[in-house]
Specification:
The complex is a heterodimer. By secondary structure, chain A is α+β, with helices and mostly antiparallel strands. Chain A folds into two domains: about 35 residues; about 110 residues, Immunoglobulin-like (Sandwich). In chain A, the strands form two sheets. A five-stranded mixed beta sheet of chain A has the order 3-2-1-5-8, with no helix packed on it. In chain A, strands 4-10-9-6-7 form a five-stranded mixed beta sheet, with no helix packed on it. The radius of gyration of chain A is 20 Å and the shape is globular. In chain A, about 30% of the residues are buried. By secondary structure, chain B is mainly α. Chain B has a single domain, classed as Up-down Bundle (Cytochrome C Oxidase, Chain A), CATH 1.20.210.10. Chain B contains 16 helices and no strands. In chain B, helix 14 packs antiparallel against helix 15. The longest helix of chain B is centred in the first third of the chain and has 35 residues. The model of chain B has no long low-confidence stretch (mean pLDDT about 90). Classes of the chains: A alpha+beta, B mainly alpha.
């Protein structure tokens, strides 16, 4: 009994840690939540149980998505029937596909390769195999505004290799 | 008051009784039955996932979905809630020094609503997960199963509300006038806070269930986007009930740990006031964080920030409990009997669960863990780690009080070690699986290496836990009939006061 001081110190330390976690995640999320205005838009449509991708020029892909390295993409995610979730685990892209809504999420792939796209929200019979493949390829950035955006997003010192990417089925 | 099993009485006398110990016994037997059969479903799920591909243990994805839906619904609403209500029935009248619950007949009614609801949930076996998220639950979920689930949960909600009203009135109105509320056991506070939370939280989901049902009938379109509804609205209503529900499950368990730890450390609680403060704080802040389950539904940055702050605000209260337990044990003369082992094991797993929870609430990291196996591991560390451990510890602790006999201590410790090792293997591994990107609620996974070995460790852990559960149930059943008669003053020989068993009121 007594020794209330220990408890106050302990609670103080816990609160300080939480404030740090909160501030740090607020700072990161502020960056992650706002897509750069120059982003290339890809429309992602989920339905039971496959993915359709539509690029800005109108070309469509089903079950496969081809993107260029070092280009910021903004995905406009929606669904035709029930809730799904658009997920690229290796790029930490995760956004629910909700019918009647368009949710946006953005990413700039920084390494070429083949990645897994999967559904991460329960959607019925074939939920477990509602997958697609993402191919990230080298590409020239022709748009000057886009190039500037990329320079702003990727400091020259920052290089990322692709050793840890999970395999794609 | 006790010796319900030791002095044999005809079955009908217990079934038709309105006495609080009889109803408590019924609650406990029903909830442990639910724990066992729900656990069997979990073992089926884990065994199916032992290897990638269809193992034939569960024949097809539809059955798999029905099994995990029933497993979740059963464990949350037929194991956690009724067990806490059962222990509350046994102890609350004794702790507030009243002869029975305030309304014995209401008490019996609340219990007898559960078996029909249980039958509906189990016979229906709906397939829309325990979230029942629209539009899937409106457009795709098949037939009577969904309706049976909806009405089963409806009945369970009413039962919880009736039980809670009874607890609140018993504690606040029937408490002995010489006993101030601040002198009652922390378990009384736990049940009081929980009951108030149930009354505030459940009506929201009750409304959502009715809306879901009329949507299924096609006469309304609250959540149906084809009729102009908003599926996200359902998720708000759902989580407004079921995030506080997490604390509704946890707080009675925390109260039970508060009963066990000081007794077996043979030291008073470090700080009674901080325990009360943490309960009340948790109950209030618990209502400010529901939408942290919904970061990925396309919430705005501001909304996410608000709910992240609300979630983080609930952490100090939980941390205060952990501190209180540790400080109570500090310098105590601890006896590691089965109840104490379960309490300490629960404390350790609670710490892991809480640490994982902070990762989940940090917005950028949530997009890594959301709807992956991380989440499965995380919330199971709460419901299995903290809550079930506290419940199993407490049923061992209360066993002499209920039956007048001692359980087998060696079997009890074996239960603890099997469960502690098993649970750690299952759920700590599932955290890692989530980071590798395995989505939850999947019938199969990609046959690549880290996933296969991790799933296998997890499944072996499930089998070890099942062995622990088998030891537990056989210990309970055989000791109830043939255990040594317990020393009712101090059954654990720890020199601490046990519950007052000598008062015996006539049965109604």
């Amino acid at each position: 009994m007594g020794h209330a001081m220990y408890e106050w110190v302990y609670v103080g330390v816990v609160i300080a840690l939480l404030v740090y976690v909160g501030a740090a995640s607020w700072d990161v999320e502020r960056f992650l939540d706002h897509a750069p205005p120059e982003s290339v838009v890809v429309k992602v449509t989920a339905q039971q149980w496959f993915w359709t991708f539509e690029h800005e020029d109108g070309t469509r892909e089903i079950g496969e998505l081809h993107l260029k390295k070092n280009v910021p993409y903004k995905f406009e995610v929606t669904s035709k029937d029930v809730n799904h979730a658009f997920n690229i685990p290796d790029l930490t892209v995760m956004m629910d596909a909700v019918p009647g809504r368009i949710n946006t999420v953005w990413v700039m792939p920084d390494a070429t390769g083949e990645y897994l796209i999967q559904c991460r929200e329960y959607c019925g019979f074939s939920h477990y195999q509602m997958r697609a493949k993402l191919f990230v390829e080298d590409g020239e950035i022709t748009n000057a505004a886009l190039g500037q955006a990329v320079e702003k997003l990727v400091p020259a010192s920052l290089t990322v290799d692709n050793k840890n990417s999970a395999p794609v089925s | 008051m006790v010796l319900e099993v030791r002095k044999p009485r005809p079955m009908w006398e217990i079934l038709f009784s309105t006495h609080h110990t009889d109803i408590g016994l019924l609650y406990i037997v029903l909830s442990i039955t639910a724990f066992m059969i729900g656990g069997a479903l979990a073992i089926a799920i884990r065994s199916e996932l032992f290897l990638p591909g269809n193992q034939g243990i569960i024949p097809d994805p539809n059955t798999f979905h029905r099994i995990f839906t029933t497993h979740g619904t059963n464990m949350l609403f037929l194991w956690l809630i009724p067990f806490a209500a059962g222990i509350g029935n046994y102890l609350i009248p004794i702790m507030v020094r009243y002869k029975d619950m305030a309304w014995p007949k209401l008490n019996a009614t609340a219990f007898w609503m559960i078996p029909p609801a249980m039958a509906m949930v189990w016979l229906g076996m709906a397939d829309f997960t325990w979230y029942a998220t629209p539009p899937y639950s409106i457009l795709s979920a098949p037939g009577p199963a969904a309706e049976m689930w909806i009405f089963g949960l409806k009945i369970l909600g009413i039962s919880s509300i009736l039980g809670s009203i009874n607890f609140i009135v018993t504690i606040l109105k029937m408490k002995h006038p010489d006993l101030p509320l601040m002198k009652t056991s922390l378990f009384v506070w736990a049940i009081l806070v929980t009951s108030i939370m149930i009354i505030v939280a459940i009506p929201t989901f009750a409304a959502a269930l009715i809306m879901l049902y009329t949507d299924r009938l096609g006469v309304s379109g609250f959540f149906n986007p084809a009729m102009g509804g908003d599926p996200i609205a359902y998720q708000h209503l759902f989580w407004f009930t079921f995030h506080p529900e997490v604390y509704i499950f946890a707080i009675p368990a925390i109260g039970m740990v508060y009963e066990i730890i000081p007794k077996f450390s043979r030291k008073p609680i470090f700080s009674y006031q901080s325990g009360v403060a943490a309960f009340v704080l948790l109950a209030i802040v618990g209502f400010a964080s529901w939408a942290h389950h919904m970061y990925a539904t396309g919430m705005s940055f501001t909304e996410k920030t608000v709910f992240m702050i609300g979630t983080l605000a609930a952490v100090p209260a939980s941390a205060m409990h952990v501190f209180n337990w540790t400080a109570t044990m500090w310098g105590g003369r601890i006896r590691f009997r089965t109840p104490m082992s379960f309490a300490v094991g629960g404390l350790i797993l609670f710490f892991y669960a809480g640490a994982g929870g902070i990762v989940n609430t940090a917005m950028p990291l949530d997009f890594l863990t959301h709807d992956s196996y991380w989440v499965v591991g995380h919330f199971h560390l709460f419901v299995m780690g903290l809550i079930t451990f506290a419940f199993l510890g407490f049923i061992h602790y209360l066993f002499p009080f209920i039956t007048g006999r001692m359980y087998n201590e060696k079997a009890g410790m074996l239960t603890f070690w099997l469960m502690f090792v098993g649970v750690s293997m299952i759920f700590l591994t599932q955290h890692v699986l989530g980071l590798y990107g395995q989505p939850r609620r999947t019938f199969d996974y990609i046959p690549v290496e880290p996933l296969i070995i991790m799933n296998q460790i997890s499944t072996v852990g499930a089998w070890i836990t099942a062995a622990g559960a088998a030891v537990f149930i056989s210990n309970m059943i055989s000791s109830a009939g043939r255990g040594k008669p317990a020393d009712m003053r101090d059954p654990f020989q720890i020199g601490e006061q046990y519950y007052d068993y000598t008062r015996r009121e006539p049965h109604h």
